[in-house]
């Protein structure tokens, strides 16, 4: 999405120096990702001390791992039509005979 915004030049320069950013766009996007990640962390921290685990950690994880190993592999795949490529221009028929690799051309010399 293209957006025009007025950004403090000094602040943007400081942000670019703070990280390995080479463009203004990259710097702004990194800042936006950081804000989104911090919001997600705040949501996770709301659950601190409210979740309880019952059982022996070691044996429960071993049992869960055994179930995962026996389960069918899971995956997601989009329909081929969504990403199949099609030529933008019809292919032209080959002119003349096909040459062997490394064969010299008779045209021009």
Describe how the helices and strands are arranged.
Layout: H1 9-18, H2 24-45, H3 57-70, H4 80-83
Describe the protein's architecture and organization.
The protein is mostly helical and 109 residues long. The chain has a domain at 22-49. Helices cover 46% and strands 0% of the residues. The protein contains 4 helices and no strands. It is flat and about 80 Å long.
Which features characterize this protein?
mainly alpha, 109 residues, flat, 0% strand, single chain, 46% helix
Describe what is shown at a glance.
By secondary structure, the protein is mainly α. The chain contains 4 helices and no strands. It has helices spanning 9-18, 24-45, 57-70, 80-83.
């Amino acid at each position: 999405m293209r957006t025009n915004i007025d950004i403090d030049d000094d602040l943007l320069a400081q942000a670019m120096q703070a990280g390995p950013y080479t463009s203004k766009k990259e710097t702004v996007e990194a800042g936006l990702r950081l804000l989104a990640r911090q919001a997600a962390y705040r949501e996770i921290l709301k659950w601190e001390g409210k979740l309880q685990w019952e059982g022996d950690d070691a044996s429960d994880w071993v049992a869960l791992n055994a179930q995962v190993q026996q389960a069918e592999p899971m995956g997601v795949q989009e329909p081929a039509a969504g990403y199949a490529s099609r030529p933008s221009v019809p292919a032209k028929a080959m002119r003349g005979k096909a040459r062997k690799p490394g064969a010299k051309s008779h045209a021009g010399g």
